[in-house]
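Notebook, student rotation project (T.W.).
Task set for the rotation: take a protein with a known small-molecule partner, predict the structure of the complex, and write up what can be learned from the model alone. Partner molecule chosen: phosphoribosyl ATP. Sequence and SMILES entered below by T.W., checked by me.
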Amino acid sequence: MNNDLLDRLAAVLNERKQADPQSSYVASLYAKGLDAILKKVGEEATETVIAAKNADSAQLIYEIADLWFHTLVVLVHQDLHPQAVLDELDRRFGLSGIEEKASRNQH
Ligand SMILES: N=c1c2ncn([C@@H]3O[C@H](COP(=O)(O)OP(=O)(O)OP(=O)(O)O)[C@@H](O)[C@H]3O)c2ncn1[C@@H]1O[C@H](COP(=O)(O)O)[C@@H](O)[C@H]1O
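Predicted structure of the complex:
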């Protein structure tokens, strides 16, 4: 998922806070509240586990897309931007030193 896609998706998810729940899936989730959104995250996580155990690659990609999507809905619902998660991953990657080792090996 590149940053541009995350930015555009986060902008749409924010806009849906003002949308009609009858016409938008995301607005309908917001209207149901945090517990309903978290229930979807749990369901998608379970479906991800099942797809992986079945070694079904296409289904696994589909379910992880659903899982990532619903975790993005949680972030935006909590007024957080997905960039904060990328920053945290970036920080951990930097701490691991893998980036430096890889660049050293190229020389
Ligand atoms: N990326 C997604 C996306 N991924 C998954 N989903 C929805 O997430 C749900 C996944 O639930 P399930 O797998 O349980 O399938 P389901 O049986 O249809 O779901 P339920 O009836 O149990 O809720 C489905 O209803 C999918 O349509 C998504 N809905 C919307 N988006 C994006 O969000 C944007 C805003 O969506 P709207 O709010 O609908 O305009 C869209 O432009 C899309 O880019």
